């Protein structure tokens, strides 16, 4: 039985990862898209006391073990996924179970930050790094993340929590150079679609 191919769409905050991931999902019929933020720890864990904000984000934000045990490891052993999975519900700071089906031999796309960390990288057959300059990313998060507060509050949170964690990730893993392909969100769809089909061998 052919194993499911797993593609990671990596990149820093506001780079356009979701846009690229959604383009691929539309191009590849039957593919499944998951977001790393579907697997966030509850607030009391990810904002652990005693840690600097960026360290809490970098080390405590995501349920990597849950993702690995329930999705990534079964796929690596050739198994289809046909079960209920806990998805984080931001509005309630809790989880909702959703039934997902990932057939063996299909394509799973996972998008999110820090996908090339040691905990995850070996599970991906291909990683695309979505690159975007910081100035553009800042403008995007100012428009997108209004739930944080006004522009000043958004910048304060990013400067204290997100940007230092991103800098640590870049220092530790050099993700743009480690990725199989580097794109921006305006990249030609056919170019990376053909690349993915070549790498994944799914058609």
End-to-end CA span: 15 Å
Structural category: alpha/beta
Tell me the helix content: 40-55%
Classify the beta-strand content into a percent band.
15-25%
Largest sheet: 5 strands, parallel
Q: What is the CATH topology?
A: Rossmann fold
Shape annotation = globular
- What Rg do the Cα atoms give? 17 Å
Mean pLDDT: 91
Spans of 5+ residues with little confidence (pLDDT < 50)? none
CATH superfamily: P-loop containing nucleotide triphosphate hydrolases
Count of runs of 4 or more consecutive helical residues:
8
Q: How many DSSP-defined strands?
A: 7
CATH class: Alpha Beta
CATH architecture: 3-Layer(aba) Sandwich
Could you write a compact summary of the structure shown?
With 203 residues, the protein is α/β, with parallel strands linked by helices. It contains eight helices and seven strands.
Question: Which helices and strands, and how do they pair?
Answer:
Blueprint (H helix, E strand, L loop, with lengths): L4 E7 L5 H11 L4 E4 L7 H4 L6 H8 L3 H13 L4 E9 L4 E9 L4 E5 L14 E5 L3 H11 L6 H23 L1 H4 L2 E3 L5 H12 L3
Parallel strand pairs: 1-5, 1-6, 2-5, 6-7
Antiparallel strand pairs: 3-4
């Amino acid at each position: 039985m052919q194993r499911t191919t797993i593609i990671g769409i990596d990149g820093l905050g506001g780079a356009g990862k979701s846009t690229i991931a959604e383009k691929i999902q539309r191009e590849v019929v039957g593919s499944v898209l998951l977001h790393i933020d579907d697997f966030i720890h509850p607030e009391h864990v990810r904002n652990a006391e005693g840690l600097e904000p960026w360290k809490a984000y970098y080390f405590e934000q995501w349920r990597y073990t849950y993702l690995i045990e329930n999705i990534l490891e079964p796929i690596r052993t050739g198994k289809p996924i046909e079960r209920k999975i806990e998805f984080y519900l931001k509005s309630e700071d809790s989880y909702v179970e959703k039934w997902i089906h990932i057939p063996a031999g299909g394509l799973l796309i996972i998008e999110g930050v820090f996908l090339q960390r040691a905990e995850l990288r070996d599970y991906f057959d291909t990683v695309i790094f979505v690159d975007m300059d910081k100035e553009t990313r800042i403008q995007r998060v100012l428009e997108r993340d209004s739930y944080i507060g006004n522009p000043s509050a958004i910048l304060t949170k990013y400067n204290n929590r997100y940007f230092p964690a991103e800098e640590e990730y870049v220092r530790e893993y050099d993700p743009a150079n480690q990725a199989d392909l580097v794109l921006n969100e305006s990249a030609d769809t056919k170019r990376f679609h053909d690349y993915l089909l070549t790498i994944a061998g799914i058609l």
